[in-house]
Amino acid sequence: MLCTVRRWLRGLEPRARVYLERGWLSRYHPWMERRALFRFQRQPLARGVAAGMFCGLIPGPLQIPGTLLVCAWLRGNIVAGGAATFYTNPLTTVPLYVLAFYLGALVMPGEQVLPAWGSVAPGGDLSVQALGAWMQALGTPLLVGLPTLGLLLAALGYATVQLLWLAPALQRKRRLARSR
Predict the structure, then answer these.
(1) Phi/psi of residue 178, each to 5°?
(2) Cβ–Cβ < 8 Å for 85, 67
(3) Band of the pLDDT at 93, cuts 50, 70, 90?
(4) C-alpha dist (Å) from residue 79 to 28, 51, 160
(5) Cα-Cα-Cα-Cα dihedral of 122, 124, 130, 134, to 10°?
(6) Which 3 state secondary structure label does DSSP give 33?
(7) Are 47 and 71 in contact (CB under 8 A)?
(8) Of 9, 41, 53, 6, which is closest to residue 167 (Cα–Cα)?
(9) Tens digit of pLDDT for each residue in 135-172?
(10) If you compute the radius of gyration of the chain from its CA atoms, what whole number of angstroms results?
(11) Which of 43, 75, 158, 174 is the most buried (most CB within 10 A)?
């Protein structure tokens, strides 16, 4: 199955190049080519996933633009980067922020206590304003924990792509070693 995914990804590259050579994107094609933004190879894909995992923790509509900038800086694949940001959604944001708070509390000196939801939303109502107030109450541990969590997720994403890409080669090597 991994070989099939790799072949499918490699087949995307020529199609992406055709789209880049048309229209208003054609004048940016040399710059994008130098930056490897649409290369579906192991290193650009791994860098793109790492950028997307890191930038996925950026609030709201700035995730994709942030990922595009980081991919251009790291020479990562922007398709993989953009897709990797979708691990954050309304269902996962609160648990990720709680995890980031605890990571920040681990790094910071002193005891940090997670504020209760009822302290910021007296009626226990779930609203955008209550969520914003709760995130502000998380304070410095959240500000320290978000980049820490982002770096951990980026490292995990990078390593996962590297391992998945190299898995078929490692399996072939083991089979050859067993057959000898």
Answers:
(1) -70, -35
(2) yes
(3) confident
(4) 16, 11, 17
(5) 80
(6) helix
(7) yes
(8) 6
(9) 777 888 888 999 999 999 999 999 999 999 888 888 88
(10) 21
(11) 158
CA distance from start to end of the chain: 26
Half-sphere exposure of 88 (CA within 13 A, CB side): 24
Q: Look up tokens 């933004």; give the residue.
A: 37
Within 10 Å of residue 67's Cβ, how many Cβ atoms? 26
How many Cα atoms occupy the beta-carbon half-sphere of 121 within 13 Å?
A: 15
Residues whose CB is less than 8 angstroms from the CB of residue 160 and which lie 6 or more positions away in sequence, other chains included: 49
Are residues 124 and 132 in contact, defined by beta-carbon separation less than 8 angstroms?
Answer: no
Closest CA to 20 of 31, 11, 9: 31
